[in-house]
Amino acid sequence: MTRPAPKARRAFPPWLKVKWPARPDPGTQRVLESLQLRTVCQSAECPNRAECFSRRTATFLILGPRCTRHCRFCAVEHGSPVPLEQLADEPDRVARAAKELRLRHVVVTSVTRDDLPDEGAGHFARVIEALRAAGGPDLVIEVLVPDFHARDECLRVVLAARPDVFNHNLETVARLQPLIRPQADYRRSLEVLRKARQFAPALTTKSGLMVGLGETPDEVRATLDDLRGAGCEILTVGQYLSPSQEHYPVAEFVRPEVFDSYREYALKIGFRAAACGPFVRSSYMAEQVWQDAKG
Fold first, then answer.
1. What are the extents of the domains in the chain?
2. Cα–chain center distance at 265
3. pTM of the model
4. Which of 129, 147, 179, 287 is most buried, judged by most C-beta within 10 A?
């Protein structure tokens, strides 16, 4: 029996051929390994991880290594999740890492935990509280949360812990949601952001998109309109890069000038800050984007 020919990989255009630091900063790596912490930089195979680690920054991935959903763009493991009791000391470990790395802006995200009664909201709150206790009032805490099925009780638990930035990614345009995020929902994600603004008006809200999945520029602009309508204040837009041949394929490598046009449009319609570019990810340069939003 003959084996099927492997799928051809698309050649990267010149603007995606950028030389980053060859290896992550060993100090950052040592701290993460000693405290047995995961980062989305590693789990999601982020192309910026060497650069970010060299600047001693990382986005902490909590609630275990395995996600209960199977999004077609994502490299994070999926399958049976880790029992929550095995993660009881994770908030303290995250806080210790942030202190040892002398972070001023901490980003915390998670796998989706549809298996838990509160979908992980209480664990998020405990991580925020531990970070605040260790880092003091000047530490900026940004959370990148799953959709929690837009449940009021879950959102209120996270918001009551008082993060500074509440991020939930829309990921792609409405038409492509069923293909890219089959267990998520476009309107539900907008509702998450809308409720966050309603429940905590002083909070900064943020969301991100990937492009190059087959969307049109008009669809992207319509999505930005929807995000602003939900009260979203900070935007990130980056190039989708397929983690493997088993994931959703790249439809297009979006040119830098198109990213510039998205940023211009976002600022025109009222976003306080917008980071748009081929290498932008939802937590990439998060501290700088936060400062831009503060004006």
1. 21-294
2. 22
3. 0.89
4. 147
